[in-house]
Model the fold of this input.
Amino acid sequence: MSNSTTLKVRLPVFVVLLEIVILALYAVFVTYDDNANAKLQNNQTNPMENSLYRDYPYFSDVQVMIFVGFGCLLAFFRFYGFSGMVFNFLTATFAIQWAILVQGFFQFYYDGKIHLSVINLLNAEFACAVVLISFGAVLGKTSPVQLLVMVLLEIPVFAVTEWAVLKYIRINDAGGTILIHLFACYFGLGVTFVLYRPSLNDGHAKEITSYHSDILSVIGTLFLWVFWPSFNSALTFKGDDQHRAILHTFIGLSASTMTAFALSAMFNKRGKLTMADIQNVTLAGGVTVGASVDMMISPAAAYALGIMGCTACFFGYKYLTPFLAHHMRIQDQCGIHNLHGLTGLISSTAGICAILLATEETYGPSMYQIFSHRAPPEGDPKLLELQRMIPGLKPGLGRTAQEQALYQVAAVFSTIAASAIGGLVTGFIMKLPSMASPADRDCFDDELFFDMPSDFVGAEVLKTTCNDEKGQIKSMDSNV
Done:
């Protein structure tokens, strides 16, 4: 390892500084939520009414997705399995710690404290998912120091964008299509645009998979697939909204999975299945139903969205990813533009259509709860009438369906713009010489940053062994 990439000083110093800052901020600003505060417990308290029992199942499901699903999925390179899983572990852990503080800043602004609860952890996990999606664009080409810097910068940009969109534009985005998938995608593309490496456009000797790495990656896909309904439904209204979200997500995922197998066999020259399609394209339906996941779109529409998302994702991997690399300086290592960008745009369009088609005839009075910004404003006689039917219904903005649809469009473009600009700025900072960035020849190689076990066969050894075996076979053939 050269002095330019050694972690001996850089990583410990950077981590210790981060931990000191986070510890100080937690000590000053973070306290318990009412549901975790012992002072508020008395003989009138029913422990089973604690919000823990409502929120923890979703928190644990999303945690499995982040640490196991993403971790295994990113271990698909033959010589980069340690880095894919372990850097995911490091990045995710710091992202959640940091997101609790950054997202909690807006709570601190109003309350003077950040009140920590399981729902705060869940929101922090969604912010973490944003970072891990962006990480996919630069997989194999960055050091752990660079990744920590990316977390440090991306979380605040995401939190501010999320706050601005939800407070001022005010949209429906139950599954996080706009604020998670589109933001993460275009932030990651902005970073990889700045970190462009011309020599990697034609591939890299170590940019290959193996039998065991592909199996591990598919295990990650299966974890993501199984728990994706929790991801899409965690923040929806409890009851029938959450019920629809789970149903639509499963139907969309199952449709995209079936379609992925068909397309993979159809477009393979030998009519066989390609593991990359199974690892990624099967998940497209989970993203595509996200923007309308809690709406009355019908099971058939969810199925159609799963097929559409899978098809777009598949052809994106096949044709768009190489085009972006060769003509637009965007080396999207994991194809996040296909799985999160293209499908996110389809999902956003479907959500806009669902908003335009929403009527009281279909939804009943609950339409003004699902589409809260369409509810009558304070003082409107209709609001009092609706509140008699739906106790607790909050005043809205009185928007029409067309107005809400336009705000959704505005949110899509503003989110993409904010994330792309944030990604470009972050990329320039990550490119600084002090960030221990690997040289082109050392990309996709665990040996650069890890002490490898004795049974690990590196790329150079493997190449020599293969050449020796070829020479022996050639010699045997000549003797025969």
Q: What stands out?
A: The radius of gyration is 24 Å.
